[in-house]
């Protein structure tokens, strides 16, 4: 596990262990913020599981971030996925600065919008048309509305444990506690939040993913009422679970049989698992797809892409728009981001694939060395590892059968050693194109040390 630049990662690991680690400023900021911002931050994912308090991050460059107390970390959260070309990327910053001289937003079409759409189509060759929006939630919400308009049907079918944002039609069975979640093949639709009208809940049916029996049986009962089947084509919100065998192809065929639009939520997988997302990787084309995160390297932008006949419903009955949709600054950033990813015939993806594989194999080696039960899965640019005795994880219910406390305790030790990722074992680690083999090797050394320390203490 020697690093390529000549630094022995074991020495670096030891140095990091010895550093004085103090996060008092984050603790005090959390106390003060909670008094005026409910939960202490403007997104629950930034505070939940971060016990007893989250770290306030002030600065980032490449794969490094610094918290409010000045502690440096190698980042393996990367803002939950967007930052594919690293923090404060010079070329992307320069593109934003260049546009900034002209203003920020005009409420008018902008030349960059056409340029970005053209660039998008170089990556996503499977979809005819594209339109931009602001967040991943906007994209899934609009895609579902288009599907309803196209089919004249109201119901949506989603899968247990898949996350498509927090709007009412998506915030269903994101989590499903075992005693109330119903049958494996026919899970109950459970609201993920208070305040969702029962009439909305009645329009969302839930199936078990990677399970054709579940989908086939449900479609036999409700297929004629369903407008859209929406899924993460690689399930990256409950660890990282890949579709088995020809599952995606079979879903495509079932959707056609029942006149249902197939919607892929590529918010995480897009511009990450391959340049054309999971639909390119698995060779299955959805009717509509939602894109965000890695499209903008952290600038707020998302997109809906799809077949012409459905996309052209926008403006022909389907309402669409938002003040900040396709904001020029985000488009400038996104264009520069995609140009970097496209360079040398999309060479970025070979590097990203190598880095992710190295990390996965390294974790498997640690499991072997320490005789630990660790399940690892990855696709290019997304990886998850969990402590479980299961040999395989295929769906949400299997994914929650893990040792959450061990994962969290080890994540705490990793923070002290200078590695930042989410304490919730269901969250993935999305390495970026900026990550080096050295970043990965140092992570692996620290992880092995952390597991050994945990085992000694428990
Ligand atoms: C697969 C998926 N879809 C949709 C969303 C929602 O995106 P946003 O948070 O930008 O609204 C997310 C967010 O994590 C996601 O992971």
Q: What do you see in this structure?
A:
39% of the residues lie in helices and 13% in strands. With 458 residues, the chain is of the alpha/beta class. It has 2 domains: 9-88 and 346-457, Aspartate Aminotransferase, domain 1 (Alpha-Beta Complex), CATH 3.90.1150.10; 90-340, 3-Layer(aba) Sandwich (Aspartate Aminotransferase, domain 2), CATH 3.40.640.10. The chain has a 7-stranded mixed sheet with strand order 4-10-9-8-7-5-6, sandwiched between helices. The chain has a 4-stranded mixed sheet with strand order 1-2-3-13. α1 packs across α14 (437-457). The longest helix is centred in the C-terminal third of the chain and has 43 residues, at 328-370. Mean pLDDT is 95; it is low at 1-15. The chain binds pyridoxal-5'-phosphate (PLP). Pyridoxal-5'-phosphate binds at residues 80, 135-137, 140, 163-165, 232, 237, 265, 267-268, 292.
- How much of the sequence lies in strands comes to 5-15%
Helix content class: 25-40%
Q: What fold name goes in the CATH topology slot of the largest domain? A: Aspartate Aminotransferase, domain 2
> Which structural category do the helix and sheet elements fall into?
alpha/beta
Number of strands: 13
Question: What pattern of helices and strands is seen along the backbone?
Answer: HHEEEHHEHEHEHEHEHEEHHEEHHEH
Mean pLDDT: 95
Level-2 CATH architecture of the largest domain? 3-Layer(aba) Sandwich
Overall spatial form: globular
Bound molecules: pyridoxal-5'-phosphate
User: Radius of gyration from the CA trace?
Assistant: 22 Å
- Which residues sit in consecutive blocks of at least 5 with pLDDT less than 50? 1-15
Spatial gap, N to C terminus: 27 Å
Going across the major beta sheet, what is the strand order? Answer: 4-10-9-8-7-5-6
CATH superfamily of the largest domain: Type I PLP-dependent aspartate aminotransferase-like (Major domain)
Oligomeric form of this entry? single chain
Largest sheet: 7 strands, mixed
- How many structural domains in the coordinates? 2
Number of helical stretches of at least 4 residues: 14
CATH class of the largest domain: Alpha Beta
